[in-house]
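Re-run with default settings, no changes from the original entry. Doing this only to confirm the output is reproducible before filing.
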Amino acid sequence: MIATNKSLMKVKQTVLRLSKSLGLLFVIVCLALANSPLGQTASAAGTPDSCTPPATTYGTDTMSVYAPSAATYTIWTRMEATRSSANSILLNIDNTNCYNVGGDSSIPTNGTTWDWVDDYGGSTANLVNVSLSQGTHTFTLTGTESGVSIDRIIAIPVTSGGGISCTPSDTQATTDGNNCAPLNNTAPPSVSMTAPASGTAISSTAILSATATAHSSAGTTAATIASVQFQVNGNHVGSAITSPSSGTTYSYTWDSSGVSNGTYSLSAVATDSNGIVTTSPAVSVTVSHTSSGGPTTPALTNTLTTATSVSLSWPASTDSSGTLTGYHLYRGTTLIASPATTHYIDSCLTPSTSYSYTITAYDASHTSPTSSVLNAKTESQLGDLDGDNVVAGHDLSLLIGHYGTNWGPGEFDCTNSASTSNVVEGHDLSILIGNYGK
């Protein structure tokens, strides 16, 4: 609440309380849409006021308001005052539309009675009607007169003729204006793409995955995710997914054979049970279909697993239509290397952790289909270099034999400031000796 007749210290305290009370504003803004006409044109009387506050003000509070759909709203402010004039407060919407709300004799003047006000400029004929586009808007309230307090704002869509569709109740202790709209979910759902990763090369089918979560305000009816629709370049692919594949994850198998080679933007659109929609940030992928004579698909082999590394190898791909450039190696959906050789050591891993790998071969104009997944789990004991589950003489011999070289399996701690990344040195030897016999 902005209590405009208090000291500066008191004003700051009441502004905090205003923020809590005005959290209810989001509830009304979003849910009024479900029960009133949308997209109507307001027939506002008069012209909005200046956005410049006077030299002396009595407290300010700013909030973000989410409008799930475009509509014209009547903005109602619940106020109390101590006199019948000079009893307004400045409402700034997006720093574009500003209104000196109130300023007339209709507001009770005993300083204890609250009244809902929908006019500005000192005339009940000037309705605070404002068009809001879909998205988040900034409402800033500034106290401009002493003796004026507010504790809540609600926004209600206008009727088809631009008139008032609902008048909130004046009874502060009972309805709080909720007679104009039910309490329910107020914030848009959150959604993000989790697979494939940006930069992934796709040659055939790909699993599109996204996580989606609905949000509800405290004390309101809980919202749920109604559906997730995947998109390619902004166009729907397949049907909307109404059930998660697991937890909050929604998945769809996309067959890229229906599109040409090139770069594509993938996104997910989540809709919650109140009809509020959010589109995820897009990820960019490259579709590269293998034509006759392109690179063959390599097959991964795990040649050695230690506590911090996985050594991988594969037979060379053949490419009768061009010169093979190299390979794209993925850990999960993340591209970790593009070697030209047929082996790679993935190092600096976490002990006792499972990892999955895939690989593709590519040339100047083609990419092979993705290989089958190779699963590997790192060992539990640092220093076990031969995979026999014990740190012994053979492991010590291996480490000494690679001392001073860039040998991934022998680099036990890539994050330690005393260690040089991927170089076998004294710090790594100390770790092995410390675990000797274990």
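The longest strand covers residues 71-81. Helices lie at 8-31, 393-401, 426-434.
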